[in-house]
C-alpha cells in the first residue's frame, strides 16, 4: 500500500529523496493523470490488435475511480464511499464501446483472442520466429498435474467453497447465504470420477471454469480420437492434500496448436484478459447499487446471467451431464440484497481469474470473508490448520526491510508489520 511514485522524469537525486509515505487519494489521482492523458489522446481503436486505445483508457479510469471511491483508514477499513467517484465510474463505463462474447467459454478458448469482450489483454504468440514463442508459462504451471497429456504443475486449484458457490436453487438463482451448507461433487467413484449429485442443479459457468472428476475437460472427451480427456482424480496435484478440483479457464486442449512443451512445462499463446467487458459492466452495477440506484443495476446483472445461460452447448456437446439451471432476478427488494447479488455475481463470473482478492480488499471485507472461509476449510484440509487472516495487516505485503534500510528510513512500513 505504501509505494513510492517514481516517474521517468525524476533525477537520481530526486529518486533518492522520494518517500513511499504518500496520501492514498493523492496517489490515485497521480496514477489517474496517466490514464486521463491516454483517454484524451489515444484513438478509439488501433489498426494493430492489442494496442492500447481510448476504450482501454476509459475502462482503466472507471476501475481506478471505483477502487478510489472506497476510502479506507490505515487499518484498511472502509470509512467512506465517495459518491462523486462512483459517478465518474458510470461516466467512463458509458464511454466504453464493447459487447459480451456470445458464449462465456469463448473468452478462455484459443481462436477467440481480442474478441468483442476483450478490453485489455496480455498478448501472447507462437511460431513467431522466436525459439519457443512468446507464450505464457505462468498459466502453463496451472495445467493438470500427473498426466501425460499435460505436465507440471497443477497450481491454482479451485476450492470446495468456490465449487459450492455454483449450486443454484429451483429458480436457477445462487444460494447467496447458504451455498456452503452442502459440499457438492464429493462422491468420487473408484475410477476417479464423480457422478452428478442427485437433484443438484448448477450454474453452467462451472463447466467452463473448474475441472471436475468425470467431466469433459475443456469441452473434449478425447484428444485426436485417443487419449482420455475426462478429468480424473489423478490429474490433481496431491488430491489428498489440496483436493481434486482443477483449473480449466487457463487451459486449452493438449493438442491445441497454441501449446508448446519444454520438458515438463507447457506454455500457451492464448491471451490473458486483464479487463473483460463483463467486468466493466459489473463495475457500473456496483457503482449504481452504492448510489442507491439498485433498480438500474438489475438489468446489468441479468445481462451477465443471460449470457451464462446461453453458454451450455460446448460442455453438453462434449458429454457433460450436469443439470444446468440459471435464472435471472425478477427484482432487487433492497439495497442489501442487490449488494449481495452483485458480490456473488462477480465471484461466479470471474472465478479463477484473479480478481476476487482485490474485490474483498476494496470492499473492506477481506478479514471477515477469509476467516469465515478458513473456519470451515481447515476442518477439511490439514495444511490450513493454522491459517488465520489478520485484519489491518494481511491486506498488503510488508515493505522489505532492506528497502527501508537502503533509504535510511525514508520508506515506512505498511501497517501491522
Automatic annotation (TrEMBL):
One cellular-component annotation, GO: cell outer membrane
Q: What is its main location?
A: membrane
Q: Per the record's keyword annotation, is DNA-binding included, yes or no?
A: no
Q: Which residues form the RagB/SusD domain?
A: 116-417
Keywords of the record, alphabetical order, are: Cell outer membrane, Membrane, Signal
Q: Which InterPro entries match?
A: SusD_RagB_dom, TPR-like_helical_dom_sf
Q: Key word Transmembrane present in the record?
A: no
Q: Where in the cell is it found?
A: Cell outer membrane
This one is known as: RagB/SusD domain-containing protein
What organism, scientifically named, is this protein from?
A: marine sediment metagenome
